[in-house]
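Bug report

Summary: structure tokens for Signal peptidase I differ between web form and batch submission.
Environment: batch mode, default settings.
Steps: 1) Submit the sequence below via batch. 2) Compare with the web form result.

Sequence submitted:
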Amino acid sequence: MKRRAGGWASWAGRISSWLLLFAAVGVLAAVVVVPRISGSTPYTVLTGSMQPSLPPGELVVMAPADPASIRVGQVAAYQLESGRPAVATHRVAAVRVDGHGERSFVFRGDANSADDPEPVRPEQLRGVLWYHLPLLGHVNLWLTGEQRMLGVGLAAGTLLLYAAVVWIRAARRRLRSRSPA
């Protein structure tokens, strides 16, 4: 059997291309696929109010949660104003129940010395922290919804093209090894 030229460099190139492929698929799954399938929402941390645990540029994925299950110490996202898209991601500092049995939440950023000014009503909650990824929030800010979908399509197409090239190369090698020299 004939040994291929290149040896070590060829082997290292294959390993690094597979690692790069797996990393790209993992990031794509964590940022787009998993949140979409689970009904979660990715947000970008914009300020230093949650440092050091969630620095600016961090991508946080918030999973839907029943307000009755939210406890002190959990990180959650809430609308700053009911019905508006702007959210804050802070830690629950207190859970209050008024005389009518209505719950409200007091939030505070880890780096802040005071609680957020207004109590948060259950309908303002957008979810609790499920997982977070460093620096990927910057990418999330740069991409609009349309660009994100285009990026997913391009990534999927690139991965399919890569798979086709690998498959064709392997088929050619098999054919060459079978044919007489």
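Above is the batch result. After comparison, the two runs are identical; trailing whitespace caused the diff. The mean pLDDT is 86. Strands lie at 41-44, 59-63, 75-79, 87-97, 103-108, 125-133.
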